Amino acid sequence: MSDGHMSDRRDLLILGGGLVGMTLALAAARKGMSSHVVDMADPASLTADGFDGRASAISTASWNLFTNIGLADRLEPHGCPIDAIAVLDQLKPGRIDFRPEPHEGSLGRMYSNRELRLALFGAAREEPLIAWHAPAKVVERVRDEHRVSARLEDGTMLEASLMIAAEGRRSPTREDAGIKLAHWDYSHRAMIAGLDHEKPHGNVAWEIFYPAGPFALLPMLDGPDGRHRSALVWTVAEKDAAGVLALSERAFLAECYKRMGDLFGELSLNSRVSSYPLSYQRAAHITEKRLALVGDAAHGIHPIAGQGLNLGLRDVGALVEVLADGMRIGLDPGDAQILARYEKWRSVDNFTVAAATDAITRLFGMPGRIPSAIRRFGMGGVQRLSPLKKFFMDEARGMSGALPELLRA
Question: At residue 211, does pLDDT exceed 80?
Answer without folding.
Answer: no
